[in-house]
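Form 7-S
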Amino acid sequence: MRIGIDVRLLYHRQAGIGWYTLRLLQALAEIDQENTYVLLQHRRQPQPVVDAPNFTVANLLTPVHHRFEPWPLSLETLTLGLDLIHSPDFIPPLHNRIPAVITVHDLAFLLYPNFVTADSARYYGQTELAVRRASRIIAVSNATRVDLVRLLGAPESKINVIYEAADPQYRPMARPEARACLLRAGVSTPERFLLFVGTIEPRKNLGTLLRAYRQLRQLYEVRCPLVLAGASGWLFDDVHALVEKLDLWEHVHFTGMIPSTEAMRALYNLADLLVHPAYYEGFGLPPLEAMACGTPVLCSNAGSLPEVTGGAALLAPPEDVEAWTVAMHRLLHDAALRQELRHKGLTRAASFSWQAAARETLETYRQVMAGA
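Output:
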């Protein structure tokens, strides 16, 4: 097979869907030396995203995340001799007949339209057409599969659920080693802290977390700081304003984007626990990454998070401030519970792998070519 994979997003952002694309490609290069992969790269990408003998590059002019991109993308891919094309970022070429596989990570733009920008809404508004156009759909969780059927009428018969995984670099490490790693990366944190990882944006529900954290300090006199690690996203100023309103500036630390996986691993290992209150996740990598490092996790019971954590995390409703306050206090003071979640988390995280995801994705390609 000659398989085109759209990797243009990686030029702009190695996070979220970009990380999914990169890890999947690396695993495909490990397990498959027979098929030819054509990386559909942004024309300004300086080098191949993955370097392997059966991977080639096609530099494209089509811009990323533009609502009109399906037209030029259709023209540019038509001349590449592809047997199929995989679009990890939802939207395939819509106007040629090359068989298409799409990965749908979530349907947040439909479930929570107030959490996306107007530009994102216009772009992802093409997902319904993409679902009809696709020969096969990869959903990253059963929660996303259910949403696809319920909200877009996607036939269950053409949806394959293929889980993501934590990067293999995420694993336990000694505190002195982790602290030294963060210092080398130029990241400063308190000695003990609660950790949130993700883009600072409305969908991550930092309002509930910040209000619960203030209650934690007021009611239980907990002095453990809160570290928010991630890039500033849409409406991040609202989060800063809430921190000021709640008089938490001295206790909440914003790190910005963490510069490397190694530094992120160190951050997970140093945290007392990970708090992940998102309203909705199609998969939700930070809880899985934290569990792979042996860090106890408290996350919301929404979307795919109960499915992904599989009984290895403490769960709370995303809008219940009191429940989050009590759960954080419990985890900080119950050493036996933290140890239980540590062991369960390590086991649960080990049950996911990018090699398994690559094998199942390759089987999806074969199903498309067989007309199954």
